[in-house]
Amino acid sequence: MLAPRSIRLIAPSGYCHNQDAAQRAVSRLQADGHEVENLSAITRRFQRFAGEDAERLNDVNQLARLTTLPDIVLAVRGGYGATRLLDKIDYVGLQRQLLNQPVALCGHSDFTAIQLALLAQTGLITFSGPMLAGNFGAETLSEFTLSHFWQALTSPTVNIGWRSHSPDRGRWQGTLWGGNLAMICSLMGTPWMPQIEDGILVIEDVNEHPFRIERMLIQLQQSGILARQRAIITGSFTSTSLSAYDNGFDFATVWQRLRDEFHIPVISDLAFGHDADTVTLPLGSRATLQLEQGEAQLAFTGHPTMR
C-alpha cells in the first residue's frame, strides 16, 4: 500500500477540455489517500489556455515560495502555452527551493519545454511521465503506467526492460534527457536548451508524420546535438497514418537512416509518450542503456526520490 502523498496541480499549457477525466483523476487520487492541491488549475480558462499567462506562470513560480513543499507537482495536461512562460520563470528561486529536494515534477508533451528549461538553467531533474487528465483520468487506468510512475518516484535505482526491434547491440552510459521531440526542437538556439554531453536522448511525439520526425532529427543533427549523444531511445509516435504516397517511408525507415547516416544507435519500441502505457523517466539522471539480441535494458539513478 502506497503512503499518502501531497500532489500539487499545475496547468502551464492548454485548457483542460476533458473536465470529466480530470475530475475522475482527482477522485481516484483522493480515494487512494492522496491530498490534491490547487484544484482551480483544472477549470481555469483563457482562450485556448489554462488561464492567462500570469496565472499559468504563477503555478510554476509559486513553487519557489511555498512554505511546505508537496511530494509531487503534476501537470494537468499538455497542449500549447509553456513556451510563452520560459523567459519569466523564477529559475533562481526554483533552484534554491527545489534542488536536491525529494519533490517530483511530472508531466510530458508541452511540459517538456519547462522541464528542459529547468534542467538547463537550474540542474533540476524532473520526471517525464503521466499527467492528470490523460493518464490518471483515463476511463481505464493503466496499471503499467501507474506502477512505473510510483517505481520511478520512490526507487533510487530503476531498471526497465523491453523488447526492441533495433539491430544495434552494445552498452551506453550517459545523461538521460529528452521528451517530446517537437518541444525539444522548439528550444534550439535558446537559453532553455540543455547542453548535454554524452547523452542518452529519449524521444516521443504525437500527430507527427515520419517525414516531420525525420526533419526534426536532421535539425538536431545539423545543429551538432546528435553528435554529442551516445544513443537515442524512441518511444511512441502515435495518431498518424501513412498513405500510398509514402511508399514504405515509415518510422522504421527514419530510425535506420539515423543509424546509417549519422552513425548513432537507435533503440526503439520503449513504451514512453502519449500512449496509455508509458514509463516514467527522470530527465537529467544518470543512465545505462544495454541492448543484446533485441532485449533492451535501461537503468537510471541520481534522481530525487520520495521518502
UniProtKB/TrEMBL annotation:
Keyword annotations of the record: Carboxypeptidase, Hydrolase, Protease, Serine protease
**Short name of one Pfam family for this protein?**
Peptidase_S66
Domain (LD-carboxypeptidase N-terminal) spans 7-129
Q: What is its EC number?
A: 3.4.17.13
Q: What InterPro entries does the record point to? A: Carboxypeptidase_A_C_sf, Class_I_gatase-like, LdcA_N, Peptidase_S66_N, Peptidase_S66C, S66_fam
* Family the entry assigns: Belongs to the peptidase S66 family.
Gene transcribed to yield this protein: ldcA
Q: What is this protein called?
A: Muramoyltetrapeptide carboxypeptidase
